[in-house]
Design goal:
Blueprint: H1 2-28, H2 45-70, H3 76-79, H4 82-105, H5 123-147
Helix pairs in contact: 1-2, 1-5
């Protein structure tokens, strides 16, 4: 699971790098306040999608194995569905984070980070925030994993 979280930090950081590329081009061409699309190759999305997909694979497999191994025998089938619930809750949490970011970055008549005109916005800041939260998640995971007491196996003969 820790490997999955670490890969997700790398994946979100790759998203930031890909987002910064068109923003640099926008500034070079002085298109900030114009509704002009600045394109880059779609192939730039391959590394970030690979990393984020790999992180989900590591997380899902690790969570299922951990929950199956550490849950009570009567709870195993229920516990193996929890990784899917965690992914769904993660999507809802992302929507909440997006709403909070929009609210706080538009205070005081500021434009905010996320705008209809991506040339004016700072979507890269939002992705840096997600990368930072993912890194914080990794730190919490490390502390929790170090302090976790494994369930003792009960041998019945």
């Amino acid at each position: 699971m820790g490997v999955g979280i670490l890969i997700s930090v790398a994946g979100i950081s790759a998203v930031v790098v890909v987002e910064i590329m068109p923003m640099q081009r926008v500034r070079e061409l002085n298109l900030i306040y114009k509704y002009v699309a600045v394109t880059i190759s779609v192939l730039w999305q391959i590394p970030q999608n690979f990393l984020l997909g790999a992180s989900k694979v590591f997380m899902f497999a690790g969570q299922v194995e951990f929950l199956y191994d550490q849950s009570l025998d009567a709870m195993r089938s229920l516990c193996t569905t929890l990784p899917l619930v965690s992914f769904a809750l993660g999507n809802y949490l992302n929507s909440l984070i997006l709403t909070v970011v929009i609210h706080f970055t538009t205070q005081g008549r500021k434009l905010g980070w996320i705008l209809d005109n991506l040339n004016e916005g700072h979507l890269d800041y939002f992705f840096w925030l997600l990368a930072g939260l993912s890194f914080l998640n990794l730190l919490v995971y490390i502390v929790t994993a170090k302090n976790y007491k494994k369930k003792k196996a009960i041998a019945i003969f």
